Amino acid sequence: MTQQELGDTINVTKVSICCYEKGTRIPSLETLIDISNLFKVDLDYLIGNDTYVVSEENESYGIKMSYEEIELIKELRKHTDIYIKLIDNPRRMLELIDKKVR
């Protein structure tokens, strides 16, 4: 979606969208809500807040995670062997990954 298309959709100018992206202008609450509704994301995500995730076993425990962290975990769970190895020995697996990437 172009800046012009987004601006037209939420009734602001292309220049405003450009300024929001550069961080030189802050959108109004109404504009944030419009963007949130358009892209079907939480307002917290738009303003950079993490998502509160509750443990599956214990609802009294929770942790804040970014959208990207949650998506990483979802993707890892699709690869059962790797996921289990990461859970069993995270430091060792990350060392191996680090060696491969370098």
Question: Which secondary structure elements does this structure contain, and how are they paired or packed?
Answer:
Elements lengths: L2 H8 L3 H9 L6 H11 L3 H4 L4 E4 L7 E4 L1 H11 L2 H9 L1 H12 L1
Antiparallel strand pairs: 1-2
What is the radius of gyration computed over CA atoms, rounded to a whole number of angstroms? Answer: 19 Å
* Unreliable stretches: none
Q: Main sheet: which strands, in order across?
A: 1-2
The overall average pLDDT, rounded, is 87
Sheet of most strands: 2 strands, antiparallel
> How large a portion of the residues is in β-strands, by DSSP E?
5-15%
| DSSP summary, beta strand count | 2
How far is it from the N-terminal to the C-terminal residue, by CA?
Answer: 35 Å
Number of helices: 7
Give descriptors for this structure.
mainly alpha; two-stranded antiparallel sheet; 2 strands; 102 residues; single chain
Brief write-up:
This protein is mostly helical and 102 residues long.
Could you explain the architecture of this structure?
By secondary structure, the chain is mostly helical. It contains seven helices and two strands; from the N terminus they run ααααββααα. A two-stranded antiparallel ribbon has the order 1-2. The longest helix is centred in the last third of the chain and has 12 residues, at 90-101. It is elongated and about 50 Å long. The mean pLDDT is 87.
